[in-house]
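Recap from last week: sequence in, structure out.
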Amino acid sequence: MNSNTKIIKFHGTEVKNIIIQHLVKENSSQDRNEIINEFNAGNTEHQCETINIQVVAEYVTITFYRKESSNSIIKRELIPTHRVQHIRIEDLE
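Predicted structure tokens:
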């Protein structure tokens, strides 16, 4: 597996890249502010073969596969859909 080459999928279909902007709570000294965080699948530091992103029920599910064909999952992240501000999908040419 080449660490620079990742397969990015949206609901199992290969795409060029996915960027998700979502709100996260920031704990400061007295306030609880919300800031916009950005997940960029193409720039992620995770060492993985495939990243598959799906919108399922009330969550955006991001699954990092070591080897997708054997269902070897490294990590799974969930973002509540009510926190998602924008999802940009860059399709293959």
